[in-house]
């Protein structure tokens, strides 16, 4: 039965590798991309086979080999769990490693007379562990708690009284509106890199934690942490019922975990093969880029074929595949488009029920609207020409950003255009250059037009016109520090000089956002998750929310 235990363990190693490589249960390439782990598993399996031999010397060689390679494999697998890459394959592989090592060592160790009973019990234990081990391992790095029930409230766009405050206990890296309140990204200390090669430097410490606050009371409703990785972006669905948490892994891959905004429960997780994996998040699906098989190079061309992609849509309810879409002949869906401004959030694009997909078609760029139920093309509209009639290249990476309410997208160029997400109708935005757009945040706020880096107007999504901001009287709210948000009902100013809020031309409301961050504590932590501003005033369900990265520990304030 000890030999049977080894055989069961080897079978589990093969099963785990197949689960990982085929992407069953939504996970692909999570651990077997590691060369060290693959070699350790192969050596482990060979050692297990030697341990099954009748020759005593072969058994000893097998036992020593499995013990050494088993330790290496276990360290790699535990590291994957620690870093937030669990998944069903890891659970099966861990049980398989334990079974092979245990069985091989038992082949050379002294056992009791009841060795057959002990061996049979071992096989049963291993089988049960393999059957149920995948689920617990998936949730090992997660820390989710639900402290308060959900209460649906309307977005607050005006306020004059501080209703609640919440101390983050450390720096705040981002805040976005979700159902019932806001999701706050409580960041771990240390710089945040944007380039994929910086990812290894972003591991260590406790990792980032997402905390959902009730918009009416400020009470924490749930928290979520996934391993030790730095969160790359928080993206709510247009209706706020779902929150996508994404982060980058070594090797230019990305992981996206989709949470239920009401409870914080994980709905599903997707591992994408490229960093710029999240393209759209509608009210029904999350779409990611998936590489297409490379064409076979012809004998006349020695160059490596360019990688092209298709869209794969996952249902928000369970992560199941809803549909796929491949660009038409002559067009490519590259990974160089910028769906929203500010790295890395520029790789997310939230619309209501249409996935807006930019294509490169020869000399032109084309926007295509896909129905999020079926993937069928609803509309197609020309974008900005990639090459002028004279052969001049017009920029390699145009700006394509969703307007905050998800009703339209803004396409940078000369001139810029507002494209209706439902119909594809385009309206020019005269006077808006490629780099004259402010940080775009979700919620019922307008995109801002900048002049020399400062907000001077808002973009009306219905007409495409730039509406100048009201003049601000000299004072603490007229300084460049701070933030501005424009809604359909008024102008909100985060007064950065002394931390205060002003609605239209009303009185200044002081707010306490915590003590200033120590000088030199983190020179790279100067903006909210790459959104170009250290301060934010955010209309959200239940409250106007203010916070800043310039304090540590940071404080989040709700005003109504």
UniProtKB/TrEMBL annotation:
The chain crosses the membrane at residues 35-53, 60-81, 87-105, 117-138. Keywords: Membrane, Transmembrane, Transmembrane helix. This is Uncharacterized protein.
């Amino acid at each position: 039965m000890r030999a049977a235990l080894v055989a069961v363990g080897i079978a589990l190693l093969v099963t785990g590798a197949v689960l990982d490589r085929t992407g069953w249960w939504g996970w692909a390439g999570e651990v077997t991309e590691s060369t060290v782990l693959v070699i350790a598993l192969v050596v482990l399996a060979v050692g297990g086979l030697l341990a099954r031999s009748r020759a005593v010397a072969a058994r000893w060689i097998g036992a020593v080999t499995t013990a050494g390679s088993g330790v290496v494999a276990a360290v790699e697998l535990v590291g994957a769990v620690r870093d937030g890459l669990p998944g069903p394959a890891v659970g099966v592989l861990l049980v398989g490693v334990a079974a092979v090592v245990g069985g091989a060592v038992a082949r050379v160790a002294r056992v009791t007379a009841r060795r057959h009973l002990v061996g049979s019990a071992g096989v049963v234990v291993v089988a049960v562990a393999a059957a149920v081990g995948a689920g617990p391992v998936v949730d090992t790095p997660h820390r989710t708690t639900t402290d308060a029930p959900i209460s649906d409230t309307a977005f607050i766009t005006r306020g004059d009284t501080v209703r609640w405050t919440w101390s983050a206990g450390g720096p705040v890296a981002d805040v976005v509106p979700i159902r019932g309140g806001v999701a706050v990204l409580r960041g771990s200390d240390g710089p945040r890199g944007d380039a994929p090669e910086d990812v290894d430097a972003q591991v260590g410490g406790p990792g980032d934690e997402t905390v959902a606050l009730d918009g009416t009371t400020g009470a924490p409703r749930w928290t979520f942490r996934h391993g030790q990785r730095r969160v790359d972006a928080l993206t709510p669905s247009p209706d706020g019922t779902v929150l996508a948490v994404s982060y980058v892994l070594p090797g230019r891959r990305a992981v996206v975990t989709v949470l239920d905004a009401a409870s914080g429960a994980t709905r599903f997780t997707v591992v994408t093969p490229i960093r710029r994996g999240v393209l759209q998040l509608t009210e029904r699906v999350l779409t990611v880029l998936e590489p297409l098989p490379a064409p076979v190079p012809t004998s006349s061309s020695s160059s490596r074929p360019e990688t092209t992609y298709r869209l794969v849509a996952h249902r928000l309810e369970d992560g199941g595949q809803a549909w796929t879409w491949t660009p038409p002949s002559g067009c490519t869906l590259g990974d160089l488009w910028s769906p929203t401004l500010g790295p890395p959030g520029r790789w997310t694009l939230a619309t209501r029920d249409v996935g807006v997909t930019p294509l490169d078609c020869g000399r032109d760029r084309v926007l295509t609207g896909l129905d999020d139920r079926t993937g069928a093309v609803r509309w197609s509209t020309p974008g900005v020409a990639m090459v002028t009639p004279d052969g001049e290249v017009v920029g390699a990476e145009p700006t394509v950003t969703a307007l905050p309410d998800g009703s339209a997208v803004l396409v940078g160029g000369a001139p810029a255009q507002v494209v209706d997400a439902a119909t594809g109708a385009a309206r020019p935005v005269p006077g808006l250059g490629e780099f004259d757009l402010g940080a775009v945040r979700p919620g019922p706020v307008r995109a801002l037009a900048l002049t020399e880096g400062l907000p001077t107007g808002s973009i009306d999504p219905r007409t495409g016109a730039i509406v100048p901001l009201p003049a601000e009287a000299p004072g603490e709210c007229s300084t460049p520090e701070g933030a501005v948000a424009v809604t359909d009902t008024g102008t909100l100013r985060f007064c950065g000089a002394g931390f205060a809020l002003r609605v239209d031309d009303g009185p200044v409301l002081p707010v306490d956002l915590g003590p200033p961050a120590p000088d030199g504590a983190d020179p790279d932590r100067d903006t909210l998750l790459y959104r170009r501003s250290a301060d934010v005033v955010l209309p959200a369900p239940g409250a106007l929310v203010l916070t800043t990265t310039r304090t540590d520990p940071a404080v989040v304030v709700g005003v109504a």
